[in-house]
Design goal:
Layout (H helix, E strand, L loop, with lengths): L20 H15 L2 H26 L13 H62 L4 H38 L1
Length: about 180
C-alpha cells in the first residue's frame, strides 16, 4: 500500500505507445515534404533501376547455370511489396501533414481577419477624427481672410486720419479768426 493522498483521484493507467503528437506531426511533414521533391523521385527511380538490373542479371546467369535461383523473379514481387508498404505509410503521413497545414492556414486566416477588422476600425476612427478636424477648421479664420480684414481696417483708419486732419485744418482757421478779432 502506498502513502498517496486519498483526496486526489488516481491517474488512469495508460497502456500503449506514448508519443509527442507535435514532434510526430513535424516528422510526418518532413516526410511528406521529402516525398514531394524531385530528389525523392530520382532516388526511387535509381533504386528501381538497380533492383531490376540486379535481378535481370541474376536471371540471365541462372539460365546459364552459373547461379541457381533468383532473388526477386521477373514480376518483381518483393519490389511491389516494398512500394505497397511505402504507399501504405506515405498516404497517412501526407494526410496528417495536410491536416496540420489546414489548421495553420485556418489560424492564419483567423489572424488575418482580426488584423483586417482592427485596421478597418482604425481607419474609420481616423476618418471620423479627420472629419472633426475639418469641421473645426471651417470656423477658423485663414491668414488670407485675416490679411483682407487688416487691409480694410488700415484703409478705415487712414480715412479716419484724413477726416480728422481735414477737421483739424478747418477748425484751425476758425480759431485763428477768433484770436484776431
Amino acid at each position: 500500500m502506498s502513502n498517496r493522498d486519498l483526496t486526489t483521484p488516481r491517474q488512469p493507467r495508460r497502456i500503449g505507445v506514448h508519443y509527442d503528437s507535435e514532434k510526430f506531426g513535424e516528422f510526418s511533414e518532413s516526410i511528406a515534404r521529402f516525398f514531394g521533391t524531385a530528389r525523392f523521385l530520382v532516388i526511387q527511380s535509381v533504386i528501381v533501376i538497380i533492383w531490376m538490373a540486379i535481378n535481370i542479371t541474376w536471371g540471365v546467369l541462372r539460365f546459364s547455370n552459373v547461379h541457381k535461383g533468383l532473388f526477386d523473379p521477373f514480376p518483381f514481387i518483393l519490389l511491389n511489396l516494398a512500394f505497397s508498404t511505402q504507399a501504405a505509410y506515405a498516404a497517412p503521413l501526407i494526410l496528417l501533414a495536410q491536416n496540420r497545414q489546414e489548421i495553420r492556414d485556418r489560424q492564419q486566416s483567423e489572424n488575418d481577419r482580426r488584423v483586417a477588422e482592427r485596421t478597418q476600425a482604425d481607419t474609420e476612427f481616423l476618418a471620423r477624427e479627420l472629419a472633426g478636424v475639418r469641421m473645426a477648421l471651417g470656423d477658423v479664420v485663414t491668414s488670407q481672410e485675416l490679411d483682407e480684414r487688416l487691409d480694410r481696417l488700415t484703409r478705415a483708419v487712414e480715412r479716419l486720419t484724413d477726416r480728422l486732419a481735414q477737421l483739424d485744418g478747418a477748425a484751425a482757421p476758425a480759431a485763428g479768426e477768433q484770436a484776431t478779432a
